[in-house]
Design goal:
Helix content is 33%, strand content 26%. It is of the alpha+beta class. It has helices at residues 14-29, 105-122, 167-177, 196-200, 206-221, 231-246, 296-306, 313-324, 337-345, and strands at 4-9, 36-40, 45-49, 60-61, 64-68, 76-79, 82-89, 128-131, 134-137, 140-149, 155-162, 224-227, 260-265, 270-277, 283-290, 293-294, 331-332. The strands form four sheets. Strands 8-9-10-11-7-2-1-12 form an eight-stranded mixed beta sheet, with helices on both faces. It has a four-stranded mixed beta sheet with strand order 4-5-3-6, covered by helices on one side. The protein has two domains: 4-246, BirA Bifunctional Protein, domain 2, CATH 3.30.930.10; 260-345, CO dehydrogenase flavoprotein, C-terminal domain (Enolase-like, domain 1, 2-Layer Sandwich), CATH 3.30.390.50. The termini are far apart. Helix 1 (14-29) packs across helix 6, helix 7 (296-306) packs antiparallel against helix 8 (313-324) and helix 8 (313-324) packs across helix 9 (337-345).
């Protein structure tokens, strides 16, 4: 019996992608469908914003489109020249049958990146996952990975692979799309980023690449059943994707009352805290944003924990400790938890 399903979609719009991911997270958690690997390519030229990035502008500018992922992490490319995968499981350790000990959040990323590594090695590229969110070839970034866990415990692991466009192009696309620099991205060149066609020295079609990646995950997770999206699944994805877009999902902005801000350099990029105080000096509202990976509930819980408490180091430390001591909550990309405490407490 197959351990998981594989669906390859060569022309999947980002709104439909987000809707499908939401649908499958619910279906997999309810055991209404098996674990699923969705391998896809989107038509058009896109920037993929992380769940926690601040952005409040249009969805298209200068011929560049943007959408917001369900997962956190850095801004990456999407659409033409990129290939994406979404692995959707009922729990963060589902199908990892050889793991006896509980896995730390950073180990989860390591385990599920292995299927992509195996697929790329099958094409002749000896890629590595050195840690954090990047997959590299000869120390140049060729893919980015991230994940989220929803309230039911279902996990979405995502990876984006540079096929014939890479992070070098993302930098220039972001300058055109976001000239005010609201969304940050470090500079890349051929010494720090690469792409599949450059390293293979040939073009590669969607079917060949999707087949190699699916085979890599079969090595990791067990036998797969390859199938198409059903009409019902497509309808669910379209409906939920449109509903998400209509809700203003792309735009995430802090309240104008959040006048106290602070920013630090994190492991993946930058992380920012915005804080509003009431007349007595207590925290009225807080927002954490930027280049980090976390389960969505943890960030919402942290922002709720901070409200009503003094804006001082001790109170912030208690809120951070309470939030991330709860089972399942995690944040990656900030380093030591004390960095989050100082970030918020030092907002001025």
């Amino acid at each position: 019996m197959a351990a998981f399903d594989v669906i390859a979609a060569s022309a999947l719009a980002p709104d439909a992608l987000a809707g499908l991911e939401l649908h499958f997270l619910d279906a997999v958690a309810a055991r209404a469908t098996p674990p699923l690997l969705l391998i896809y390519r989107a038509p058009g030229r896109y920037l993929s914003l992380g769940r926690f990035h601040l952005y409040g502008g249009p969805a298209e500018r200068a011929g560049i489109n943007a959408y917001r992922r369900l997962t956190g992490g850095r801004v990456v490319g999407a659409g033409e020249g990129w290939l994406g995968l979404a692995l959707i499981l009922p729990s963060r350790t589902a199908l990892l049958i050889d793991e006896a000990a509980p896995l730390k959040p950073e180990q989860i990323m390591n385990r599920y990146a292995r299927g992509l590594l195996t697929g790329l090695r099958g094409l002749g590229l000896n890629c590595f996952y050195p840690g954090r969110d990047a997959i590299t070839f000869e120390q140049c970034e060729i893919a980015m990975c991230t994940y989220n866990v929803n309230e039911s415990g279902a996990m979405l692991f995502e990876a984006t692979l540079a096929v014939n466009r890479g992070m070098e192009e993302v930098v220039h696309d972001l300058e055109r799309f976001d000239p005010d620099g609201v969304v940050a991205c470090r500079m890349y060149g051929p010494d720090s980023a690469t792409k599949l066609t450059r390293e293979l020295d040939r073009d590669i079609g969607f079917d060949e690449l999707a087949g190699a990646i699916a085979a890599g995950y079969e090595t990791l997770l067990g036998a797969a059943k390859r199938r198409e999206l059903s009409p019902e699944e497509s309808a669910h994805g379209t409906y939920r994707g449109h509903a998400l877009a209509d809700s203003g999902w792309l735009n995430r902005t802090g309240s104008s009352s959040m006048t106290r801000t602070n920013r630090i350099a994190g492991q993946l990029g930058s992380i920012e805290a915005r804080v509003a105080l009431d007349a007595e000096g207590a925290i009225e509202a807080a927002m954490l944003s930027g280049d980090f990976i976390a389960n969505t509930a943890a960030i919402a819980e942290l922002e709720a924990e901070l409200r009503g408490h003094p804006h001082d180091l001790a109170s912030v430390a208690r809120a951070v400790t309470r939030t991330f001591s709860r089972n399942g909550n995690f944040i990656l990309g900030a380093g030591e938890m004390s960095n989050i405490v100082r970030l918020i407490a030092a907002a001025k």
